[in-house]
Specification:
Layout (H helix, E strand, L loop, with lengths): L1 E3 L6 E4 L2 E5 L5 E4 L5 H4 L4 E3 L19 E3 L19 E3 L8 H11 L5 E3 L15 H14 L5 E2 L2 E2 L2 H43 L2
Parallel strand pairs: 1-4, 3-5, 5-6, 6-7, 7-8, 8-9
Antiparallel strand pairs: 2-3, 9-10
Helix pairs in contact: 3-4
Length: 204
């Protein structure tokens, strides 16, 4: 494993912005403090095929619009820093297993994502990991619901029908949640009423 600080000798300017490739470097952690002024201008960052599990260093890249982290060690508990400008994130073939742990937190950290790819992770059921079409659709609806600006998920564009289905599913979840809260409240009131009645009997 390497803990590396790279200079901008690998950086180039493309039509889409400043690009920095640190792919295939055996990196486990990137130190950016002493290069902060240089890294701040990077808009496209390729960190694929490394050994990265902690991505907190990304907070030093203030202008990031694209990050490629394919084939790393990003797991379900990995937390991304707040990246409001990030539009594209590739996390293919990492160690993300638990959808409910990882995806909602990612949605808060990267609210502007347009493109997200999680192919090859257990949290993203597809034919790549032996899951069914139904499981894949449920997964897609949940992700689309959390990322309203998403127009491509994994290897497929987000369709209008998927957006509608995601909204419908979300409405059902919210309705069920509200129902459960109401039932919990009623149960609590009923329990309190019964206790009051019991006490009154003891005072007779």
């Amino acid at each position: 494993m390497k803990n590396m600080t790279k200079s901008l000798d690998l950086k180039s300017q493309s039509e889409n912005g400043y690009y920095l490739s640190l792919a295939h470097q055996g990196i486990s952690k990137l130190t950016v403090e002493d290069k902060k002024s240089e890294y701040e201008c990077v808009e496209i960052l390729d960190l694929s095929h490394n050994e990265i599990s902690d991505v907190s260093f990304l907070t030093g890249f203030q202008r990031l619009r694209t990050v490629v982290l394919d084939h790393n060690l990003v797991g379900s508990n990995t937390v991304f820093p707040y990246l409001p400008r990030l539009h594209m994130l590739w996390l293919n073939y990492n160690l993300i297993v638990d959808f409910s742990t990882f995806i909602p937190v990612l949605a808060r950290s990267c609210p502007a994502l347009n493109i997200l790819s999680l192919v090859g992770n257990d949290a993203a059921p597809s034919y790549f990991n032996g899951k069914t079409l139904e499981e894949n659709l449920k997964y897609r609806y949940r992700v689309i619901c959390l990322f309203p600006q998403l127009y491509r998920l994994d290897d497929q564009d987000v369709t209008t029908s998927e957006r509608q289905a995601a909204r419908t599913q979300n409405d059902k979840i919210l309705s069920l949640s509200a129902f459960k809260q109401d039932q919990t409240g009623l149960s609590a009131e009923s329990t309190q009423g019964n206790r009051t009645h019991d006490f009154s009997l003891l005072n007779q």
